[in-house]
Amino acid sequence: RTNGTTCGLKEIMIGRCYEYQFVKYPSATNQHNIKNCTALYETFESAVRYKSHCNMNMSTYKDYFDLALAGVHVINRAMFWSGTYAVTHAYSGSGLNYITLEDTLAAAMVNGLVWCGNENHTEGFDFNSCPNNCKDNRWADLAFWGLASKTFAQLAAGEIFVILNGSQLHGRSAFRNNSYFSDFELPNFRRHGEYRVTKINALVLHSPDEKVMERCGEKSLRLLEDLITNNGFEYACKDDPEELILIMCGNQWEARECQIARRVLRQA
Ligand code: NGD
Fold first, then answer.
1. Interface pTM (ipTM) of the complex?
2. N or C end: fewer C-beta atoms under 10 angstroms in the chain?
């Protein structure tokens, strides 16, 4: 069991929605595409409040995503991640450089929050504890983030980017079965029409001073390459792009590799 529903879920979601539209991205918000934050919250709430958490499925939140992401396309800037949350979001720059799922209104409203409906609770949410897996229903836990991932993948067009972790330990791989990226994003990239995906760029990171487990073209990254090219997309893969190494070194200044980078930068 994890913690229960985040206190103030409703106020946080509505507040984040206003902040997203009128503070963070005022220029992207014009009279025609302003979303009604209360209506968005109510659509979300009616999917989950008073409902048993373990009965959720992949259509539970459909109306919410339809409303929150209506008319959105992300062209040449969509960025996906698997095992690289922090560095990806530092790099995407809140949508300035690239756009991740978490930079869309639908996901920004709830990212990092916890919630679960409860049919017996007076408030319709369980604020004490939420089950983190539902024995007989794998979909319960995927209901929100699975559909979020699928919907975002369907909005991505042109060249897209995915940042993978080539230093995964404990038998995990850079491209992993059962990850959201492999199960909900990769299979849903558009293959036809004006908004099709043309090229998939994998960026593979190795944490400074940690063992290199996989590079482009090796092991799971080979599988990924085959999957992508067999589906008719162009593919490129790059190990440790410099701009990403610099971001990682910002937090690991003492690592041997980062000291070398520092010396080279001084000479340049
Ligand atoms: O630092 C973190 C973090 N690290 C991992 N996770 C994190 N969530 C944070 N808010 N901050 C969570 O680990 C993440 O929410 C997932 O639930 C889970 C699995 O992540 P990981 O790293 O193993 O990669 P996946 O391929 O399974 O999923 C990431 C992709 C990415 O392209 C997003 O567009 O799937 C989308 N996604 C899925 C689930 C949840 C995003 C989320 C999310 N924002 O919570």
1. 0.90
2. C
